Amino acid sequence: MSVIISPSLLSADFLNLGQDIDMVNKSKADWFHLDVMDGVFVPNISYGLPVISQINKKATKPLDVHLMIVQPERYIEQFFKAGADILTVHLEACTHLHRTLQCIKSFGMKAGVALNPHTAIHNLDDIITDIDLVLIMSVNPGFGGQSFIETSLNKVKKLKKLIRESGSETLIEVDGGVNTETGQALVEAGADALVAGSFVFNSPDPQETIRALKELK
Fold first, then answer.
1. Fewer CB atoms inside 10 Å of the end CB: C or N, the chain?
2. Do the bridges between strand 86-90 and strand 133-137 make them parallel or antiparallel, or are there none, so unpaired?
3. pLDDT band at residue 106 under the 50/70/90 scheme
4. Which residues does the record give as substrate binding sites (predicted)?
């Protein structure tokens, strides 16, 4: 299976968002990555439900929604109604993670769990078979354009080992500092999906950049 590419619209041109959505629709990208920040869980604020609802009207590919918010369980149904196909919550933000994942799945969405750079893989030991996707943060969440944290490669390898040993079909997604160089290393380590924001949208030819990422093996 080729690597899944999920361009992050956090780095898109919001004055011309429709054009950037069209670009991703036409590209070899697989998903749209949507970062939702509340200014509490992370030190930044992005867009919320109304913007995602509008993106959903134009996007022709699944919406991969990453909630960087406190108490994400309060908004699961609203994000489902806004169009989320994959809904990822942070382990660090969920007191009752298993219950939250089951609620996400009850709406027919794929359930993801994100891990901050300091959070160890062993925290997923008892729940890995209930997770459709694990999002490894390879930068500290909150802002685009940060440098890749090299220890993320080892985390991907540890997670791949856990997935194989558990017999689960969980996908590994990585977000932060992804380019063709770090992306190649991540795919070799076992990543199934790559999130790329500024590397795609700040490039001279975003569609070509997406194609280059898609061809990593």
1. N
2. unpaired
3. very high
4. 8, 66, 142-145, 175-177, 197-198
Residues making up the binding site for substrate = 8, 66, 142-145, 175-177, 197-198
Q: What is the pTM of this model?
A: 0.96
Place of tokens 């500290």: 140
Total residues belonging to the chain = 217
Q: pLDDT confidence of 145, banded at 50, 70, 90? A: low
Tokens representing residue 73 in the block? 């369980």
> Reading across the β-sheet that carries 63-68, which strands appear in turn?
4-7, 193-196, 171-175, 133-137, 110-115, 86-90, 63-68, 32-37
* The pLDDT of residue 144: 67
Task: Point out the annotated binding site.
Answer: 8, 33, 35, 66, 142-145, 175-177, 197-198
- Cβ–Cβ contacts within 10 Å for residue 62, how many? 17
* Alpha carbon distance 123, 120 (integer Å): 6
What positions carry a catalytic annotation? 35, 175
Q: Helix %, strand %, coil % for the chain, to 5? A: 45, 20, 35
Place of tokens 């382990």: 91
Residue 83: φ, ψ to 5°? 120, 5
Residue pair 203/13 in contact (Cβ under 8 Å)? The answer is no
How far is the C-alpha of 91 from the C-alpha of 97, rounded, in Å? 7
Q: What are the residue boundaries of the structural domains of the chain, listed by start?
A: 4-214
Residue 199 Ramachandran class (φ > 0 left, ψ -120 to 50 alpha, else beta)? alpha
